[in-house]
Amino acid sequence: MNLKLIVLYIVLIAFLGLTGYSLAVTEQGFFEWAKSLMMVPATAQVVVDLYIACGLILAWMFYDSRSRGKPLAYWLAFAVFTVFAASIGPLLNLILREHQLHGIKATGNAEQSNN
Question: CA 59 to CA 62: how far, in whole Å?
Fold first, then answer.
């Protein structure tokens, strides 16, 4: 496992822990909590900024998955995670992408050494 994957896994696990904790201690449901964030201009600005960034990331993930020949359903799975859990979708996408790239490299190296 390379350093990039280790860092991605650490960030994902830490963020999942923070997300789980935040949802566990809040007294509101998810949608009520999200609505309350939009009531205060300062937090609304952060939420809007986050979703603009997520929209840009979704566009990158879409074109990246198409360029690698993945079906639309592949991108949609990550899009759902991104819409409802923000950074979790892109983190999962990057982890899976990194595993796929290293699987191809390993296969390519094995085939080259056999020739």
Answer: 5
